[in-house]
Amino acid sequence: MVGTMPESTGVEGMEGGVGLTALMVAAARAIETHRHDALAQDVYAEHFVRGAPASAGWPVRPRQAPDGDANPLWGRFARYFGLRTRVFDDFLLRSVRTGEARQVVLLGAGLDARAFRLDWPSGCVIFEIDREGVLAFKHKVLDAVSATPTAARVPVPVDLRDDWAGALADAGFDPAAPSVWLAEGLLFYLPPAAETYLIDTVDRLSTGGSALAFEVKLEKDLMVYRDSPIYTSTTQQIGIDLLQLFDRDPRPDSQGDLAGKGWSTSVHTPFEFTRRHGRGPLPERNDALEGNRWVFADKLRS
Ligand SMILES: C[S@@+](CC[C@H](N)C(=O)[O-])C[C@H]1O[C@@H](n2cnc3c(N)ncnc32)[C@H](O)[C@@H]1O
Asked: Is residue 291 a part of any domain in this protein?
């Protein structure tokens, strides 16, 4: 059964509210790109950061971060985003290279430049869903540096609290063909009804052989970590109060829902990937990353 579609409450641009978080992740990717032991490379990230007045003065190189790696925001948290980028790069490329799926949907794509920087097999189509203001800024910056996509790229400007499934269909998505989906750094900003609608919709639009990866936070009470260095330094250094932007309502069990719909799922802490790659954040005291989980799901063929 398809979930009830939640309603959006308005349009926000790049520099307000959750749009700013896309710039924060872009700055983290820029810093990661210039590390000697980079986990991921994104040459476009620094152009996004420099292109928006709100972030023009933020660091885009490790040496520009005050206190370097000891800085909770531009050190440990940025490394977290670098690791996340690498892990989901690997997921997407593995999915399209080893399976039949050629449609990729980036939900809440933000300033994700994967359609320009990854080596996609021929025939791939990358759908990027985000709000209009965010995608318009992205195009302006990418056009200015004459960026060329490495696959067919289809921007889908729509709010994920609205009828995004209709917008995706209008953009050419084919539900009869397998697909790969990613919700990276997204679900905790959405109201629970929008998350449930998103998971139901991905299931409805996915044939057997499709795959999905997403990120969740398991904390029952996000405020338990309100004094964690990651949250306090993000507020103090760049004025983003993540706890204000996260939806505080009880979260749905999306992994359990997918398992109940016949998907095979696996749940991982980011720290598992830190150990696998030999670099990245490790657990610490009062850790805002403690409840973060990366979920991978495959829809089985019937
Ligand atoms: C933290 S950013 C992550 C962006 C990207 N996935 C990445 O990892 O670089 C969150 C993104 O989700 C988008 N987003 C949040 N709520 C949304 C909504 N209701 N509809 C569409 N996009 C939304 C924001 O505009 C923003 O680009």
From this structure: yes
Residues with CB under 6 A from ligand 1: 18-19, 21-22, 25, 108-112, 130-131, 134, 159-161, 184-186, 189-190
Q: Is residue 208 part of a domain?
A: yes
Q: Whose CA is nearest to atom 27 of ligand 1?
A: 110
Question: Which pLDDT score, from 0 to 100, does residue 302 have?
Answer: 77
Per the domain annotation, does 11 fall within a domain?
no
CATH number at residue 109: 3.40.50.150
Q: What percent of the chain has pLDDT over 90?
A: 92
Range of the domain at 79: 18-299
47-80 pLDDT tens trace: 999 999 999 999 999 999 999 999 999 999 999 9
CA-to-CA distance for 82 and 218, rounded, in angstroms? 21
Contact of 126 with 120, CB cutoff 8 Å: yes
Q: Are strands 179-183 and 292-299 parallel, antiparallel or unpaired?
A: unpaired
Order of strands across the sheet with 292-299? 152-157, 125-130, 103-107, 179-183, 211-217, 292-299, 263-268
How many angstroms separate the alpha carbon of residue 302 from the centre of ligand 1?
32
pTM of the model: 0.95
> Above 50 in pLDDT, residue 3?
no
* Residue range 24-42, pLDDT digits in tens: 999 999 999 999 999 999 9
Residue 229 has pLDDT above 80, yes or no: yes
- Provide the domain count of the chain: 1
Measured in Å, residue 190 CA sits from the centre of ligand 1 at 9
Identify whether 12 is part of a domain. Answer: no
CA of 298 to the centre of ligand 1 (A): 23
Distance 231 CA to ligand 1 centre (A): 18
**Distance (Å, rounded) from C-alpha 100 to C-alpha 298?**
13
